[in-house]
Every structure is written in C-alpha cells, then in structure tokens.
Amino acid sequence: MTTGDAFEPDQRYAANATSFGAAAEVYERGRPSYPATAVDWLLPEGAHHVLDLGAGTGKLTRMLVDRVPLVTAVEPSEGMREQLVRSVPGAQALPGSAERLPLDGESVDAIFAAQAWHWVDVDRAVPEAARVLRPGGVLALLWNIRIVTDPWMIALDEIIAPASESDAESESPRVGPPFSEIERRDFEWVNEITPDEVIDMVASRSYILTLPEGERLEQLERVRTLLATHPDTAGRATVGVPYVTRCSKATLAAE
C-alpha cells in the first residue's frame, strides 16, 4: 500500500476520531508533552525517517522533527490533523490507522505510538508495523500516566474516574513476532501547568468528551471548584502534575 491508496478508517480508530476530533484545540492545550530523555531512549541511532502513529495534535511529533530529518505523522481524525499541521508544519501529516498505514514497505526506521497503542487491533497493527519498518527498525510505544499520590490529585481522580485501558496496557503492551522481546523503561517527571490547563487536560479525556453535555459541564465545574478550594491548589498560578512516562520498544528482526 502506498500513500495514494484510499483510506478507510478502522472502526476503533473511527470511534477515537469521533471523540477527539471535535476537541482538537482543547486536546492541544491540555495534554502534556513527553520528557526528552524518554524520546531519546526510544529513538534508534541514525534514524532518518520516523512515523508518529496516532499523532493527535503533534505533541510528540514536534519533538521528533527536532531530532530526525523526515517525520511522517499519521492521524485518523481530520480535526486533529488540522491542528497538527498548524502546530508542526515541519512534519508530513497523513490520514491513516495502525491497521492500514499509508506508507510504502520498508520505508521508516522507527514507528512511535504515543498514547495510542491501546486503541489498535494488535493482530492487524503488528504486521502493518513490520511491513513499513526497515529490517532492524524499532516500534516505540509510550504513555504518560499520572502519578496519583498528592492529596489534590487523589481528589481529582475521585471526580474524573481514573481507571483507563491505557493504564493497564502501558505496563505490558502486546506486540509479539516478528518483533523482539519488549524493552521497558519508566521516566518520572512533573508537568507545571495553570489551573485552566488542568481543566483542558480533564476536558480532553475521551471519558469526559463522550458524556452528555450536561454531565460533562458538571464534571468540569467540580474540577474548577476543587482547584479553587483545595489547600494544595487554591490561589496558585501553576500546579505540578507528576507523571511517569512508560516506554516500551521492540526491534524488528533483521533479514
């Protein structure tokens, strides 16, 4: 398959696009980036062309264009892609999904999937990744997971229903042959953001996006009240949101 083939989104990606696409600007404002140490650990030495799969608004893409000569960002949501093009004009942005990549075979040195692999049909995505990677190429998976130990973070999670598919998947993502055994490493860091950015972070979650309008607004108002009244956050210009970026990489067998 080449970039000229017609694209028909996979059903799981279509659902993702439906929830996130309309909120692309909120997603861009509210979602965190990734620590440079994590990206550098995942990126293979000498990579010339990398793919950012499920690139969203380009949170990871902008870090890759600073490190690699050629970056292709594949994103199923038109709204997300439009925001990505505005945010990261140095990347090539294409529609597509993990199950149907709009790239030629053996054309990239690495495939990154940030906050995305839990959406894919692994049985179809793994062969597609193997098809477009050059022999010895790397499949790099990463997730930002909030560390919920601070009292105000615990109170926040009581509002926004913390359990998610990505939390479980990030610990031990499924890949398998023809890739090597997964290498895992965690990177802890703190994202300093404003209270308004906390609201955007919450508003960009798929769980919140898919609520009926009245319930969604009620949830966000509860978060605003928490930020305005909790002793750890009240009156502060910024608050620290601690994360662990869980990274996994697997190498395609060389021919």
Q: If helices are DSSP runs of H or I spanning 4 or more residues, what is the number of helices? A: 11
Describe the main β-sheet briefly: 7 strands, mixed
Q: State mean pLDDT (0 to 100 scale).
A: 88
| Order of strands, widest sheet | 3-2-1-4-5-7-6
How many individual β-strands?
7
Span of the ends, CA to CA:
21 Å
Fill in the CATH topology.
Answer: Rossmann fold
The portion of residues forming beta strands comes to 15-25%
CATH class: Alpha Beta
Rg from Cα: 18 Å
Q: Helical proportion?
A: 25-40%
Number of domains: 1
Which CATH architecture is right? Answer: 3-Layer(aba) Sandwich
Question: In brief, what are we looking at here?
Answer:
The protein is of the alpha/beta class.
Give structural notes.
The protein has one domain (11-251): Vaccinia Virus protein VP39 (Rossmann fold, 3-Layer(aba) Sandwich). The two termini are 21 Å apart. Helix 7 (151-160) packs antiparallel against helix 11 (213-229). The radius of gyration is 18 Å and the shape is elongated. It has helices spanning 11-21, 24-30, 36-42, 61-65, 78-87, 122-132, 151-160, 165-171, 195-203, 206-209, 213-229, and strands at 49-53, 70-74, 92-94, 108-114, 133-146, 183-193, 239-251. It has a 7-stranded mixed sheet with strand order 3-2-1-4-5-7-6, with helices on both faces. It is built from 11 helices and 7 strands.
